Amino acid sequence: MRTSNFLIATVKETPSDAEVISHQLMLRAGMIRKLASGLYTWLPMGLRVLRKVEQIVREEMNRAGAQEVLMPAVQPAELWQESGRWEQFGPEMLRITDRHNREFCFGPTHEEIITDLIRNELRSYKQLPANFYQIQTKFRDERRPRFGVMRAREFLMKDAYSFHIDHASLEQTYQLMHDTYSRIFSRMGLNFRAVQADTGAIGGSGSQEFHVLADSGEDAIAFSTESNYAANIEMAEAVAPAAECPAPGADIQVIDTPEQHSIEEVSAFLKVDASQTLKTLLVHGASEEGELEGVVALVLRGDHELNEIKAEKLPQVFAPLTFASDDDIRAAVGCNPGSIGPVDIGIPVIADRGALQVADFVCGANEDGKHLTGVNWGRDLPEPEVADIRNVVEGDPSPDGKGTLTIKRGIEVGHIFQLGDKYSQAMNANVLDENGKSVVMTMGCYGIGVSRVVAAAIEQNHDERGIIWPDAIAPFQLALCPINMQKSQRLREAAEKIYTELQAAGIEVLFDDRGERPGVMFADMELIGVPHRIVLSDRGLDAGSFEYKGRSDAEKQDIPLDSLLEFIREKLS
RNA sequence: CGGCGUGUAGCGCAGCCUGGUAGCGCACUUCCUUCGGGAGGAAGGGGUCGGAGGUUCGAAUCCUCUCACGCCGACCA
């Protein structure tokens, strides 16, 4: 490709609304442009990368025996009503009405559509297992789109759905997809990890996420120092400490704590460590039928954080989890937030395991401006119901009993689920088994955020000059930069000849024939992140050499011209 | 959804407080010089100042409404 025939839309200045490095570099390198919040146009440069990612995904899915399909982006409401998700999905689903006043949505995912297809097409266990995938545009009306294509509303996703006669078969395919995903991200040259994950809105039993490790990642991941345990922090179990709770050593006292509300303020005021305090959070409760009912107190050690995912799964807690308003709090316990405590609170109390290990603790007195000190479970208030409702922290014991946990950040680029029969049951997706009996199919689903992978790759591979693409997903493999070609017929001819040869050798060359000054060419090619660069000059021709520099090399090197093809082939292999 | 902020040329911004000719840098066009790390000079083109309404002799500037975009938050006991 010649730059004269390819949009090089690089910009020097960083657009003011780009927060993370990948977003800034994608804009500056001329890969994407924003159309509206969470909506991006892919320019030729960006699209080449997107297509490369797509192609690797496609090749590996095909290799794993999955079959490609393409389903509509716009989906009829009826199917979603059948699965029960039309009501469940909430405002993230973009709903549309056609001219006949029929309801549709712009698909945020495709379980309903594939299940509908398969129940009509598959009749026999002999056709199972089967795995279908597509690479297609999704729309999720994110409450806050941000970070460019990393969390966009419209995005490109590879989604696959597998169908099985039983759970054992599902597990086989699930494992195959796990291995396939590992191959995919390895081929892309990314540093990634598979971690245990929550199943979220999609539902089902087991699931794992694939994370690209990067400090800017939105997810926290807990790793064991001693084993291969890794889990999203949403999921990582905070195991109960082995030690018994110490015996009470102090008497309970009421202390005036005027204007001291947060744990930080109270612990500083009373000169005790935050871990010696307990915080009490009020959330909306649920009846046995799951209806909204009353409020529930969640008690945590002062220095711990509530894990909303875990809390939401408690039967007493209303899902989705919502915090009680100040008015609700006053009505329930008679004081303002900042002075709540579990003693004589008069509503159900659920304590985190960690909170139960604290003796002589400090907590709110359920009276404005007052806290209690020297409080002990069992003595001053009944032993509460106990649950794991906090986020693990660095140094916690690993749930598998081996080593302790460290926390790193990651960008979720893939997610695999064992769905079970959630959709097949609701939508009557059955086949006949070998006894001629109708059985509900078991399903798995497997997603990769194709457009997000592009951003994640940049987060992990960049420097102060721009992007450093891994070879496998670079928009071009090689930049060919002749210096002052417009002034030297000899150089022009040499450059054209080399360009032709490289192309004939199947190498993706970006030939910079714009006649720009060297500084401009180099800056652009480095910003764009082309992994390999050849510089041609009259000086080099005189010496019978060309200059080579890898994108992340410290030094350039002069190489004899007659070994150019050989040298480049070596570099690209 | 709540709080805060920002909308002025393709991009980055100033001007607004204190109303009176719409500016700067980058980018773009033409010419000259320059030519191995985002060149210098000269001359140019490009604006419904987000939109609507109001106040005023006069509004980018003041007021009201509205739209868009962004940041933070949705952990506070």
Entry summary:
With 573 residues, the chain is α+β, with helices and mostly antiparallel strands. The chain is 26% helix and 28% strand.
Mind sketching the topology for me?
Blueprint: H1 21-28, E1 32-36, E2 39-42, H2 44-63, E3 67-68, E4 74-76, H3 77-83, H4 85-88, E5 94-97, E6 103-106, H5 111-121, E7 130-139, E8 154-164, H6 167-187, E9 192-196, E10 207-213, E11 219-224, E12 230-232, E13 253-256, H7 263-270, E14 278-286, E15 292-301, H8 308-312, H9 326-333, E16 349-352, E17 361-364, E18 370-375, E19 385-387, E20 405-420, H10 422-426, E21 430-432, E22 438-440, E23 442-449, H11 450-460, E24 462-463, E25 466-467, E26 478-482, H12 489-504, E27 509-511, H13 518-528, E28 532-536, H14 538-543, E29 545-550, E30 557-560, H15 564-572
This protein binds one RNA strand of 77 nucleotides through residues 10-17, 19, 34, 36-37, 91, 143-144, 146, 261-263, 266, 279-282, 305-306, 308, 323, 326, 329, 335-341, 363-364, 483-484, 487, 516-524, 526-527, 535, 537, 539, 547.
